[in-house]
Specification:
Layout: E1 2-7, E2 16-21, E3 24-28, H1 37-41, E4 56-58, H2 64-67, H3 70-75, E5 82-84, H4 86-116, H5 128-134, E6 138-140, E7 147-150, E8 153-159, E9 167-175, E10 178-184, E11 207-211, H6 222-239, E12 243-246, H7 252-262, E13 273-276, H8 279-290, H9 297-306, E14 315-317, H10 321-327, E15 334-338, H11 348-355, E16 362-365, H12 374-379, E17 384-387, E18 390-393, E19 397-400, H13 410-417, E20 425-429, H14 433-447, E21 451-452, E22 459-461, E23 466-468
Parallel strand pairs: 3-4, 4-5, 5-6, 10-11, 11-20, 12-15, 12-16, 13-14, 13-15, 16-19, 20-21
Antiparallel strand pairs: 1-2, 1-22, 2-3, 7-8, 8-9, 9-10, 17-18, 22-23
Helix pairs in contact: 4-5, 4-8
């Protein structure tokens, strides 16, 4: 009976955990490693387990750093169930096919370059065909419903409040008469965030595998965040240029549309033309609308009062490449929301090429930016960036609105942990070393809990609760 940490260990991306109990093996998450080229190249490495010996996958949510290697798993022979919330399945159908399309296009581009050097072609990490094969394997579970997925292995999904369908996972396992309860936080939502409920507390666990993305900092208050967004929009309107908002297609885009809808007059958004330029975000917004029963009370009340929280009188939906290219003809007055949120691909790259060098351009960063990404470089004050093989000067004004994060901050993480009874063992993952260390110190100071920060490959014997690595 053990758990092995195979991803998001002392880093933020690539979530993946392997549980061995009796003769069974299950994975919790199978995420992409994101960041710079050297980081992403690790996705091509062999899985550190025998794919044919995995009996089930439990998926916390649809973001690619948690789900993005599922098509690779299927490509290598996996045919067993994938357990997740129904909304997670629907969002994965969108996200994984899009990721596969990007893989195919990137591989085509690389192979053209390799051909000119008389090098053998390479295969994509996975194809759209592989991505489509993932979806029939989903076995969906509603929140708060217990299910025995294998003999002596039972799971339950709890609302994590991060994105639609995001879940904390409770897992009960039994071996040789000993029962252990594991809790995986997944990604915990930011308390008070628009649209979704706050993360649901859990009381009992023997081991908590807990994210620590913002374990070393506090977000601005929501009131300060709304004021900051208002001031940024006002400053941009005086400059006469356009606003670019790199936004994650799932979660962040829907929150932005909600906030623009709610604050249309107060933020003087009638003076702008708002473009949603992301096919994936457009489709994801339709999924969000489908699962309105998961919304918090405030959002449901807004729907009763004024209809869909994602519609604006000046919103333009850009689905085709031609529509996207037409936006670049606008020299001012446009707010462009486009993926990817870390500027690591997608249509935002083309808008940066046309806009980032302009002094009247404003770029609003509204999400976490991993090391090695263009988004992180912009936040860190880079004077130039590389786009499509070209070095481009940064003339735009960069604004970081950190309060919009979909992740719990240090206070939110502590609040969620505080509901556990006793002193459960804790393994901190999904965080950079500094953030995890800071949060570990806080857990010890307040709860006398010694939190592990496992390295990749580390194992915990769940009978003795001893860590190796």
């Amino acid at each position: 009976m053990e758990i092995q940490f195979l991803g998001a260990a002392q880093e933020v991306t690539g979530s993946c955990y392997l549980i061995r109990v009796n003769e069974h093996q299950i994975l919790v998450d199978c995420g992409l490693i994101q960041g710079g080229r050297s980081d992403e190249d690790r996705n091509t490495h062999d899985f550190p387990f025998n794919v044919n010996q995995i009996d089930a996958v439990v998926l916390t949510h649809a973001h690619l750093d948690h789900s993005g290697r599922l098509p690779k798993l299927i490509r290598e022979g996996y045919q067993e169930p994938i357990y997740a919330h129904p909304a997670t399945r629907d969002l994965c159908e969108i996200m994984l096919e899009d990721a596969a399309y990007i893989n195919e296009k990137d591989t085509e581009w690389k192979n053209r370059r390799r051909a000119r050097k008389h090098l053998a072609p390479i295969e994509p990490l996975y194809t759209r065909e592989d991505a489509l094969k993932v979806i029939p394997l989903f076995n969906t579970l509603e929140y708060n419903h217990k299910k025995e997925i294998l003999p002596k292995i039972t799971i339950r999904l709890i609302d994590a409040g991060h994105i639609l369908g995001s879940s904390c996972v409770e897992i009960w396992i039994e071996e040789n008469g000993v029962t252990r309860k594991l809790v995986f936080s997944g990604d915990l939502g930011h308390k008070g965030a628009p649209i979704l409920h706050d993360p649901t507390p859990i009381k009992e666990a023997d081991l908590i595998v807990m994210e620590s993305t913002y374990g070393d900092r506090l977000h601005r208050s929501w009131e300060s965040t709304w004021q900051e967004m208002s001031e940024v929009l006002a400053a941009a309107s005086q400059g006469g240029g356009n606003i670019l908002i790199p936004a994650f297609a799932i979660g962040r885009t829907q929150e932005l549309l909600y906030l623009f809808h709610k604050n249309l007059a107060d933020w003087k958004l009638e003076n702008w033309e708002v473009f949603l330029d992301s096919p994936m975000a457009i489709n994801a917004t339709k999924v969000y609308a489908k699962y309105w029963q998961l919304y918090d009370k405030e959002t449901r009340e807004l729907i009763k009062k004024s209809g869909s929280p994602y519609l604006l009188p000046n919103l333009h939906i850009s689905e085709t490449p031609e529509q996207s290219m037409q936006i670049n003809r606008m020299r001012s007055g446009a707010i462009i929301i486009a993926a990817s949120g870390m500027c690591s691909g997608g249509r935002i790259m083309h808008h940066l090429k046309h806009q980032v060098w302009r002094n009247d351009c404003h770029i609003i960063m509204v999400g976490y930016q991993a090391h090695g990404t263009i988004g992180r470089a912009l936040v860190d004050g880079a004077k130039e960036i590389r786009l499509f093989g070209e070095t481009i000067n940064v003339g735009a004004t960069i604004h970081t609105v950190g309060g919009l994060s979909a992740h719990a901050d240090q206070a939110g993480l502590m609040d969620w942990f505080s509901h556990f009874e006793g002193q459960p063992h804790v393994a901190l993952t999904h965080g950079e070393t500094r953030a995890a260390s800071c949060f570990a110190d806080l857990l010890y100071d307040r709860f006398a809990v010694h939190a592990w920060q496992p390295k990749k490959g580390a194992r915990v014997d769940l009978l003795t609760m001893k860590i190796d690595g």
